[in-house]
Protein: Hydroxyethylthiazole kinase
Amino acid sequence: MDYIAKIRENSPFIFNITNEVATNFAANGLIAIGASPAMSHTPREAEEMARHADAVVLNLGTLTEDRAEAMLKAGKTANDAGVPVILDPIAAGATTFRTEVIAEILSTVKLAVIKANAGEIAVLGNVLKETKGPDSPIEKNDPNVAAAVAEKYKTIVIATGKTDVISDGSRRTLCDNGHPMLQNITASGCLLTSIVGAFASVTQDMYEAAVWATASYGIAAELAMKTAEGPGTFIPALLDQLYALDQEKVKGYQRIQEMEEERKVF
Structure:
């Protein structure tokens, strides 16, 4: 399936309850890839937005009581409407409030994909007690931890790191696309979460959507650094590359493996 062409053909409506740092960047990234973003965090319209969306993205970056209420309403409504829900549990375990909200979402909302850094996934898998912020304290991204979390919550897990891991509990796919410059700008992981929402919105196969989205975003970052000189020029270059991305480009640059064997998904 040509995911990128499908996104541009359908212009899927992606409802994001995201953080203040990421809102503008995530919206522009979604537009660049061909989706139609909505960014709102008021509980008063969460259910209506979710009902009409093609995917719902829940990002806990700058968490508030209102955002937590909106996320729970949106997630449950999306489940009832058959709309995929993507969760980004930023800084899982950092505070009691954040931990409780994440636990409630995990226990009451059926998630299509959980996308988080390796440290946050380790917290969800009880391998790590807490994270201090949005950056992962873990250098090695263990595929078995991602698989265990995927199995625990019956979902697809994307654990990001130097090598990204995608798992559904049994399959474990490794993605080596990406660039270190992503660590030098704010909300790069948040944009990936929203991009995952766009890919998930055009298929029933959440696993393939997760693999495709992760590789495509990493490739866009690699190509952006061919012209960027630093973080200031990287951000517009990344948006440009998301806009210019197509299936053939992803085929040419993807570095994907299913554990030890090369995974040919495109």
User: Anything to note?
Assistant: The beta strands are 13-17, 36-39, 55-59, 85-88, 113-117, 156-160, 164-167, 172-175, 256-258, 261-262.
